[in-house]
Amino acid sequence: MVDFLKDLILHFSVIMSLGFMYNFLHMQRRKVYQRQFFKLSVLTAMLVTMVFPIHFDGGIEFDLKLIPIFIAFFYVGRVDGFLLTVLMLVMESLIHFDQLLATAINYSVVLVIFFAMEKIYRDGAIGKKVVLGLLVYTLTTATRLVAILNSGNPHNYHFLFVFSLVSIVALSITIYIIEITKFQLRTMEELTKAEKFSAISQLAASVAHEIRNPMTTIRGFMQVLQGEKNLDEHQQLFISISLQELDRTQTIIDNFLSLARPNTGGASKLDLSQLLKEIIQFMRSYSHLSNTELVEGIEKDLWIKADSHELRQVFINIIKNGIEAMPGGGSIYIIAKAEKDLIKVQFRDEGIGMNKEQLGRLGNPYYSTKEKGTGLGLMISYDIIHRMRGKIHVDSQKGKGTTFTIFLPCE
Known about the structure:
Elements: H1 2-26, H2 34-51, E1 54-55, E2 61-62, H3 66-75, H4 78-95, H5 100-123, H6 126-151, H7 156-226, H8 233-260, E3 268-271, H9 272-289, E4 292-298, E5 303-306, H10 308-324, E6 330-339, E7 342-348, H11 356-361, H12 376-387, E8 391-397, E9 401-409
Parallel strand pairs: 4-6
Antiparallel strand pairs: 1-2, 3-5, 6-7, 7-9, 8-9
Helix pairs in contact: 1-2, 1-7, 2-3, 2-4, 3-4, 4-5, 5-6, 6-7, 7-8, 9-10, 10-12
């Protein structure tokens, strides 16, 4: 009994260390080798549980190697989880060759279950993830119960109960610690974005109006000069370019003013289906100039509460970005449909796409994938959707395109 408790405490400590290691590594400001260190921690945990198993009466041995494999699959990557399983089977052939076939069958089933529930697990809340983890662990407990039944030793039932209870607690706490760490990291990112947004808004409020007045004067004089008849071709070109740059600067100033004075009181019941069709019709001429086709699939009678001018600004900005992301032409698919108490609006292009680093910085001020972009257009779009109690989710693959998915509450 003493040896059983000693081994059980060792296993419990090893599994718990994974959660604390994840928290320690991911809460550091420096991310160098962060992923590699956590992989090493998971591998070490699995090896320790295999080399020092928990002994039951009758020569039966159990361990917690399933939990490191579970953590590797869902928190490092499916490939890492699969490779760790293969390594585990190799180790099993060296330690208990007679049990290799049964272990291989059991863990093949486990991996199939992991792949089947991967999407549900990743999109679920903390409580749901804990429940899914316990359901998988229950299957392993069932196989252990069969092994004890075959051993014919009734004392092992008590050991199995304590062993399973401690294992469930260890797995639950580990998942909870990792998920709370991820939540804290997301919160810190949102706070950082909020601080940047606040700084931009204050700057906009104090500077934008002061810049607009001299800009208007400069533009007026440039237009007067453009009307002169004694200008040569180069002078006309220089004035034309100057006016274009003034227009671009004016757009940036307008974006600053939108940040400084967001509209909060213009929301009303709105037919989103009709609004999208109007925007698509409005953008068709622009898309044809870029050899781009707008393909729509919009359900009827999608009603929301929003400001039509703000929402129009968001949709036009996303469509325009999609068109500009396809210099060689292509299609933009615009889908809108109701899903339970939400309305899902999707914009999918076939453009150049973005890598993970670019995707992570999307929506930040002064970050844009376009040569002359400021990043303020998407930043304002994110803010508008957020104030509408909606969400924006972006998926992208380099060279394959980008999908903007917007979820808005139904009216």
